[in-house]
From TrEMBL:
Coiled coil: none annotated. It is found in: Membrane. The keyword Signal applies. This is Putative inactive receptor kinase. Its main location: membrane. InterPro entries: At_inactive_RLKs (IPR050994), Leu-rich_rpt (IPR001611), LRR_dom_sf (IPR032675), LRR_N_plant-typ (IPR013210).
């Protein structure tokens, strides 16, 4: 019996589909990204942290808290909130994730400062490091040197000190800035950030008049700064008992 003329076509299509499925199944970020994540985990390993289940034999894009792009070709987000991570973020770990867009390490015990290589990532859009133990007066100055793409900066409830740099206004894509619950001092610099929807610097040690560009935010955004004045707080020059 003669073979159907459609058989070779069907076999070819099957082979192509099988090949594509195999390619998709083994798609992985570059080894440098995988090793960067493992190096970060090893350097911050603490006994009180629950296991993340990052199995070196499993696909990177399936690890808890790790998000890859649609093709599984690169890591675009690391979200590890409240998992007991303790210690400083080591240089040469997360800063090697060249396409990282979102980093969330909120509600951990991250100490010290933010390494420079992490703050040089060109595609970083959101940085959530609230409720940690970050400290020092240089973090905001270094963040201000980031490319203009940063949209969300949340550093609430840390131990940051020093002034809010006026260069923060160069990050023109900012939509959210939360610096509340730190030890920041000095005045709030005048910045024009047209897309800014959330701004909170409450519970610091700021002083002086609130710039007019921030007067549109509610009083709660500035509460807890005894020497801060001006709209939306009481006017400057009056009695502040």
């Amino acid at each position: 019996m003669a073979a159907s003329p459609r058989a070779p076509v069907a076999a070819t299509l099957f082979a192509v589909v099988a090949f594509l499925m195999t390619r998709c199944a083994v798609a992985e970020p570059p080894p440098s990204e995988r090793s960067a994540l493992l190096a970060f985990l090893t350097a911050t390993r603490q006994h009180e942290r629950r296991s993340l289940g990052w199995d070196a034999s499993a696909p990177t894009c399936g690890w808890a808290g790790v998000t890859c792009d649609a093709a599984n070709s690169t890591v675009v987000a690391v979200r590890l909130p409240g998992v007991g991570i303790a210690g400083a973020i080591p240089r040469g770990t997360l800063g090697r994730l060249a396409n990282l867009r979102v980093l969330s390490l909120r509600a951990n015990r991250v100490v010290g400062t933010i390494p420079g290589d992490l703050l040089r990532l060109p595609r970083l859009r959101a940085l959530y490091l609230q409720q940690n133990l970050l400290s020092g007066a240089t973090i905001l100055t270094r963040i201000a040197r980031l490319g203009g793409g940063l949209e969300r900066l949340v550093l609430s409830r840390n131990n940051l000190s020093g002034h809010i740099p006026s260069a923060l206004g160069n990050l023109t894509a900012l939509q959210v800035v939360r610096l509340d619950g730190n030890r920041l001092s000095g005045s709030i610099p005048s910045m024009i950030l047209a897309g800014l929807a959330v701004f909170n610097v409450s519970n610091n040690d700021l002083s002086g008049s609130i710039p007019k560009s921030f007067a549109r935010f509610p009083p709660d955004s500035f509460a807890g700064n005894r020497h801060l004045c001006g709209d939306p707080l009481p006017p400057c020059g009056g009695s502040r008992l």
